[in-house]
């Protein structure tokens, strides 16, 4: 049953996966409106299943306390990162999950190497860390607007023509290091069409409760659409690796994007296959001894073991 479900999920996300080593042309290779023949009316139920599985696996991940998961979300403005996080993580225990959003770097952050601020937000063992924007901004917005690179004050020899190739390599190495230490890196790119972005911007202007999400700067970024698409394509080609592949999630339909994001995350957790720790013979013997002691402490008239009395009739009877 679990195997069958795991196989179905693996098949579902397979078309979204960027084959390591392949050359990606985003516009040609991935359709923002793809929906794998799923009907919208089945969408809510599918997402519920995904959210339920995530909660179950996250509880085991935390209990096992051995692996950690880093979930990176990248997208163009209005791509749906916030909503995806809100919906997909709605069922999990907040104790085991933390979200970090990365904005324009602070002076302190600019004073360090470019991976420094991301390294501070990595998950602990047993945890899921979500990056709302991630270290990939370092080869996206920084590339499209090179003045960001100037602000990083790199020494002359570190900012030649090879700077992006070096960054891809460093990022791949960093993720490999994390993976080899038990931290799985899951990467999702929400792929939005230009027309759907226009529609979402208009909605942000039309609806007062969405105004805060919109800034005139977003429209200026939109003018650089083609540059961003090129930077995305190159990033996907260079940094989809066997240890941390990219998944390109069609983002024009929010409901479908959320199902895909949940499926990719569940798939990763199923691969980790975390288990609740079990106790050995000696520890179980100790538990039985403590149990007898606790039963003996029952006050007169109370069940020796109220839990057993309720759940296993005939056991844990009353103390005279
Ligand atoms: P938002 O996610 O809408 O709150 O916007 C955050 C802004 O921070 C976006 O415009 C990003 O392009 C920008 N940003 C994120 N990371 C970097 C970075 N490393 N360098 C420069 N700008 C960044
Ligand atoms: Mg924004």
Automatic annotation (TrEMBL):
UniProt domain Polyphosphate kinase-2-related: residue ranges: 40-270
One Pfam family this sequence matches: PPK2
Sample GO molecular function, one term: kinase activity
Keywords annotated in UniProt: Kinase, Transferase
Ranges of biased composition (kind: Basic and acidic residues): 307-320
Disordered: annotated segments: 291-320
Coiled coil segments of this chain: none
PANTHER family listed in its UniProt record: POLYPHOSPHATE:AMP PHOSPHOTRANSFERASE (PTHR34383:SF3), POLYPHOSPHATE:AMP PHOSPHOTRANSFERASE-RELATED (PTHR34383)
Name the UniProt record assigns to this protein: Polyphosphate kinase 2 family protein
Source organism of the structure: Kitasatospora paranensis
